[in-house]
Amino acid sequence: MSLSLYEAVVLPMQQTVGSVQGVLEKGAQHYEARGLNPDDLLGETIHSDMFPLTFQLHSVMHHSLGALESVRRGEAGPPNKLETLDYAGFQAKLAETAQTLAAMKADQVNEWTGKDVVFKLGEMSLPFTAEGFLFSFSKPNLYFHATTAYDILRMKAVPIGKRDYLGQMQLKR
């Protein structure tokens, strides 16, 4: 069995973005049911030397749809500017991200196989192929930031578990 670039990258990204949407929804419900404001979660971190939930959510979007856009352009880097959003704003942006991922065409993504992608950070420049960039940089980052967002919500007593983190699996049809 061989997997196309689309199947190996876009489908897992859809699953991960969807799971983050689900845990955010449960976070909002949990906080609102207790008379708390979900916006209070946005500044939370697991540890003082880690970035807050806002950064984790920006990173989920950056390392999913943003990574695919970087491959299309042939150039990647850190996000230029992080938007200031409230909790509902992050939910809306993640919904947009999910919709755009769902609309991506397999043929278009598969055409990127072997394409050169350069990651630039200041004066540093790292050459990748599309597959190398997506498999060794973007997907691990996506999973890291999705897990960290999940962990922040779990740390704040949001009733989520492994099934929530897994999201919609790709079951045989």
From TrEMBL:
Gene3D superfamilies named in the record: dinb family like domain
Source species taxonomy: Bacteria, Pseudomonadati, Pseudomonadota, Alphaproteobacteria, Hyphomonadales
Protein name in the entry: DUF1993 domain-containing protein
